[in-house]
């Protein structure tokens, strides 16, 4: 079975590949494939590689998860440097951070992943076209290379996995000319300097978090609440931690304009929504993190009859990932109602390919997908937030167990553990099914993964409590959660 | 009432309330492990752009002081806790004199008798000595290491227990020259493939292993803090002997139960004469109905703090709280906190093969490269994950093993999942959290039986 991967309209792929046309030729010199994947990101590559058992990059590799976590790690290492002296390491001052060195190392690693994906596609005999794709009709896609060369490809099945891109608030004067987004921050050769991050998404907070950790003067401007779709108590703890560790917050403010000053710095004017008072500030960099928009604009979806949501412009899909046109599918960030996460895109892509090959009929389960926000103090969660649980089941039917704990590694360096907190949201009625777990602390992703499995197994509060803890860890505090919110007792874990 | 008394070690070390874990176990061990990890972090940080002087040294005194300060606060916390719950605490050595009566001897030799309706023995264990020339005079153990008033210098660790490997690991991580003398296998009782991989990771750190040797004499060449010691060792396979000179010799060859000298024979509590441990029923009751036991002294139970705590809590609830719940000793997770950590829950491959027959098992495995190690240019083949599944029971996960950073944080949740009946299918159906190390378990594909290469590829 021959397959092809076409680059989506806006992926920033830095290599050039000349695909060798292959496959059966249809009418009008078109190439016919069994499966055509548009988009070389997490979902697209997973689908393409799975279909012929082998595996480019997309957002995750290039401007998302990977560089983000590496820069987060760089920031955490700054914290380790500070802790080290308390544990006996004698490090002469001054200690400073060189953005350029870090950026080069991160960028080199990302490039090695790009290369790795190319090799994998080749190994699995997937043809890769570095073309900008758009639909001609529901069976035919036109691909245009950088040089302007055109090719027509058709396929029995077409998968759209073009992802999304950061939104520019173009209604704000100077936003486009002077601001940058997450597409740019990881590729800056020079330090961004004094930065204003606009937004309250995890992208905004994660970026602001690592910038602060690297020693840069960082401000976050939010219109209303942080991490809107997340548990709000946890979201507050996340931002409280950032605020007490050097990040400045301008809450309830929106920017009005961005201007460039004669010395090259940026002047931002904003308004405080509550008081209606205007204010200005000077920054070296303005980073917009105000949401992402799906990459569907230039695909000519209407020529194929593929429908999108009028609100989000994302592609409407069913449980099989099929669009309004039966043989055209959409996975990953571009699909409506899906979590915008790499692993879900990958899994959806794999399962779809397996279904198309007739290998299985399994559908993707989008429930209880765990995730982690990689802010300086990390927040891992799976299942329902407290608000969602109460909305669904009623406050009387929900029991929330919680604890404030102190990681052992925080004791010696006297780190502030005020926001190290865990809560487990359960049904009150026996067997007290666990509806959601929320963990704020170091290595939250590592902690949360296994518990997400427990929830998938239908874990009850009792089962979790019967699990013996591993000592000394932070994760063990999850299996020791005894105090309920309802009891009103002090949830602070004491030693011994 | 709690009777707690710590007999000083042969080197004279003693400590406060809290037992082994707080004073000379888990807590100081993990803090020293953290100190070693921070040393590695310092090296990594340069590749992430951090710039500071090349000259970095470690000060042992700063570390032990910080560790002992924290331990002291925990001792205090324990005392407060007991006081708050109106539990009388007497710092004295307890010994049965007759049924329902103990004699308590304090540090000054004063004796007082106490009676009670029920008793719990939770006296734990102490490090074993070799019984060779010079061992008690010149060697130290984990009882002494965490408060050692001088840097141990070039150290010979005798033993292959997790205590031996963890100590060897953090000492090497702090920049000391470390040799480990092993009589036969590493981490007896643990999965041997994992043990060997762990051993290799220590070797890569610079730890030298002397395999299949046992010490026969320890001689003092020079007094000092530390001094210089000569160790003569004999091969277990022939007449060959080897000599080495070290500043410190740390014995970590096992622990002996503190069940002698507490009068158990006077009231008829049966103990295992070979190892001193106390057999109990599933209610932690000894052969004498009003005497219970919990913790490291128990025969056939995992010697872990959380197990002891869980057993103790549940016992108290059964005795006085009208509750029925028993301690669940199945699938107790544990972690070896060597520089590269090893977390596990359930069966080793060897035990699984014994219990279920190898042909009924499917083992999925992979090496993985933590993202944080990429830029730091650390080994891409060192970390390893495997699960052992029972083919006759829906590929139920009966053994979980991970060698990698933060193994404890990762293993805990999987232990809970195993308690809920984790299967391979459920692992496959669960979305991973990206990018983490833990997510590797949600994408395990290659089986040992396939013989395929397990090198990790791409995103």
UniProtKB/TrEMBL annotation, chain A:
* Record-listed E.C. numbers: 1.8.1.9
User: Which keywords does this chain's UniProt record carry?
Assistant: Disulfide bond, FAD, Flavoprotein, NADP, Oxidoreductase, Redox-active center, Selenocysteine
* UniProt entry tagged with the keyword Disulfide bond: yes
Instruction: Read off the InterPro entries from this record.
Output: FAD/NAD-bd_sf, FAD/NAD-binding_dom, FAD/NAD-linked_Rdtase_dimer_sf, GSHR/TRXR-like, Pyr_nuc-diS_OxRdtase, Pyr_nucl-diS_OxRdtase_dimer, Pyr_OxRdtase_I_AS, Thioredoxin/glutathione_Rdtase
Domain (FAD/NAD(P)-binding): residue spans on this chain: 33-349
**Pfam families assigned to the protein according to its UniProt record, in alphabetical order:** Pyr_redox_2, Pyr_redox_dim
- The record places domain Pyridine nucleotide-disulphide oxidoreductase dimerisation at 369-480
Give the enzyme's main class according to its UniProt record, as a single word. oxidoreductase
Which prosthetic group or cofactor does it need? FAD
Write out the similarity annotation. Belongs to the class-I pyridine nucleotide-disulfide oxidoreductase family.
Q: Which NCBIfam families match?
A: TGR
Q: What is this protein called?
A: thioredoxin-disulfide reductase (NADPH)
Q: Gene for this protein? A: TXNRD2
Automatic annotation (TrEMBL), chain B:
Keyword flag Nucleus: no
Keyword annotations for this protein? Disulfide bond, FAD, Flavoprotein, NADP, Oxidoreductase, Redox-active center, Selenocysteine
Q: What class of enzyme is it?
A: oxidoreductase
Q: Which residues form the FAD/NAD(P)-binding domain?
A: 17-312
Q: What is its EC number?
A: 1.8.1.9
What is one Pfam family matched by this protein? Answer: Pyr_redox_dim
Residue span, Pyridine nucleotide-disulphide oxidoreductase dimerisation domain: 332-443
Return the InterPro entries for the record: FAD/NAD-bd_sf, FAD/NAD-binding_dom, FAD/NAD-linked_Rdtase_dimer_sf, GSHR/TRXR-like, Pyr_nuc-diS_OxRdtase, Pyr_nucl-diS_OxRdtase_dimer, Pyr_OxRdtase_I_AS, Thioredoxin/glutathione_Rdtase
What this protein needs as a cofactor is: FAD
Q: Which family does it belong to?
A: Belongs to the class-I pyridine nucleotide-disulfide oxidoreductase family.
NCBIfam families reported for this sequence: TGR
Report the protein name in the record. Answer: thioredoxin-disulfide reductase (NADPH)
Q: Which organism is it from?
A: Vicugna pacos
